[in-house]
Specification:
The protein contains 13 helices and twelve strands. By secondary structure, the protein is an alpha/beta fold. The protein has one domain. A hairpin with a 7-residue loop joins strand 9 and strand 10.
Length: 361
């Protein structure tokens, strides 16, 4: 305010230099305020997705159950009736909404880190694809932003390709959360869904599978580039059964945005995590990012570190209705080799030293 008053006084004095100086002061104050507002909008856009991912499903389930006990019980009855009829929609690719995928909030989400999608090769619309996404990180934020929104223009970079990000099937049993996920083109990561998309949904489909899953998230930490892949072969078998090309994809910086407590093998903490992973499908992590108002405090907002997702060259896969273990092993080894080459080729472009090695577990 003092700057604005001083600027106005300079204008009243009437000198040309004072007027020029006053205008510069006014614009500098406007830019500063706008910059702060932009940053806060970025933080809020990221936090809303983190909270949606963590608590939206549970919160909406509790609210609907409570609604049964109120005068608004009919609303809950109508929703659950509709839910019963709509139960299998996620298995058929869901209900994507281009309107939701193009929300401005996702552009603020992208710019917070920032997140970038790098295309290295064209994809044919006459083929179907399975993208192996690595690493998982804590929440797979790069996978969500790049393939479940249009913030990084995935549809323009790969015209004619429909991306489907696959996640835990349990998320689609949660009221309201399931609608939110489906609107972005997110689907359950199970055999029924993948079989449908690769055999009954035409061509030009790209299913993004975070191959390392919960096991990989447990080792996610800044400065570490490691993937859980050596014994993950189910996605290769699916690709062979449907003749879907495999596309290695590596997200540089995915592990940098959260810090977590790593429990050693054999500890009680790791035992609890493995039990959750075995019986529920996910492994609870003790992690933290920055606070809502300050990067010097702890909170759920991820750290603003760049995430660059590089989509590699597709590996042509033949269609084999009954692939043998030898077939699976062959194409799995080809995929691992392609992923390591992709990492080595691009690592120095995104801040890693030439000596950095991708650890494949």
């Amino acid at each position: 305010m003092k700057t604005l008053i001083a600027a106005y006084s300079g204008v009243l004095r009437g000198t040309g230099s004072s007027i020029l100086s006053a205008l510069q002061d006014i614009f500098s104050v406007t830019w500063l305020n706008r910059s702060k507002v932009e940053k806060q909008l970025q933080v809020i856009s990221v936090l809303q997705w983190v909270l949606s991912f963590l608590v939206l499903g549970v919160a909406c389930s509790a609210i609907l159950m409570y609604t049964f006990c109120t005068d608004c019980w009919l609303i809950a009855v109508l929703y659950f009736t509709w839910l019963a009829f709509d139960w299998n929609t996620p298995k058929k690719g869901g209900r994507r909404s281009q309107w939701v995928r193009n929300w401005a909030v996702w552009r603020y989400f992208r710019d917070y880190f920032p997140i970038q999608l790098v295309k290295t090769h064209n994809l044919l619309t006459t083929r179907n694809y399975i993208f192996g996404y690595h690493p998982h990180g804590i929440m797979g934020l790069g996978a969500f932003c790049n393939f479940s929104t249009e913030a990084t223009e995935v549809s323009k970079k790969f015209p004619g390709i429909r991306p489907y990000l696959a996640t835990l099937a349990g998320n689609f049993r949660m009221p309201v959360l399931r609608e939110y996920l489906m609107s972005g083109g997110i689907c359950p990561v199970n055999r029924d869904t993948i079989d449908y998309l690769l055999s009954k949904n035409g061509s030009g489909n790209a299913i993004i599978i975070v191959v390392g899953g919960a096991a990989e998230s447990l080792s996610s930490m800044p400065g570490k580039n490691a993937v859980t892949l050596r014994n993950r072969k189910g996605f290769v078998k699916l690709a062979l059964r449907h003749g879907a090309d495999l596309v290695p994809t590596y997200s540089f910086g995915e592990n940098e945005v959260y810090k977590q407590v790593i429990f050693e093998e054999g500890s009680w903490g790791r035992w609890v995590q493995k039990k959750f992973q075995k019986y529920i499908g996910f492994a609870p992590c003790i992690f933290h990012g920055r606070g809502l108002f300050s990067s010097d405090t702890w909170g759920l907002v991820p750290y603003s570190k760049p995430i660059t997702t590089v989509v590699g060259e597709p590996i042509t896969i033949p269609k084999l209705e009954h692939p043998t273990q030898q077939d699976i092993d062959l194409y799995h080894s080809m995929y691992m080799e392609a992923l390591v080459k992709l990492f080595d080729k691009h690592k120095t472009k995104f801040g890693l030293p030439e000596t950095e090695v991708l650890e494949v577990n």
